[in-house]
UniProtKB/TrEMBL annotation:
This is Flavin mononucleotide phosphatase. The keyword Repeat does not apply. The keyword Transcription does not apply. NCBIfam families: HAD-SF-IA-v1. GO terms for molecular function: hydrolase activity. One of its GO terms (biological process) is riboflavin biosynthetic process.
Amino acid sequence: MIFYKRLPRLKALSFDLDDTVYDNVPAIHKAEVDFCLYLQQKYDLPAFTASQSFWAESKAQVLKLDRSLEGDVTLCRAKALQHGFLKLGVPLSSFDEALELVNHFIFMRSSNIKVDIDVIELLRRLKERYVLVAISNGNVDTRILQLDEIFEFDLRPKHGQWRQKPYSDLFDEFLQRYKLKPSEVLHVGDDPVTDVLGSVQAGFNSACIYKGYAGKSHGFDYYRALPHVVLKDVFELRELL
């Protein structure tokens, strides 16, 4: 644990999820591969649709038309699916069907993730002393990960309402709900931009897990703001107990 700025008295901790409290990389990769194959088999699509490249191109085309979708990964994926099926000449029956498919993807990716029992125990102990919330740009299902009982709530970007980190929308919403001052909260995350820069700009104290849970996140070369503290892993938060 390396301190760059003094931490004041804290009342709450906010946590990023992916690559902060678990290793997300292998889980999301497997889910992407399995989901493409699922779509190809379920709808009897051409063989090339079992490749991620087709759906990635569909997403790129959707974002080219509306960049604001980028922050809401659930809505963006649904729009990309709708666009892809239309391009294949087999349009989905409704947008609700696209959302149902995205929910299946979320189930697949969440089921691939295993949160270490020691991480869960640490979070439970921290919850005895602080308000704990999740502030994430992703769409993992915390119920499947058994994290829903730990975090008071789980804030995610929502198109037209809350922009994604590093914008301050999610941080501001948390403060408003709990009537807290930014200086009373420590945000814990792995990403130098979305987590460190985002939380610092929002006035929060910032704790960065250097290079993430499994050492796969960006390092110091990507930092655009100085965190209050850099952690070698999430378990160094035991110092706050």
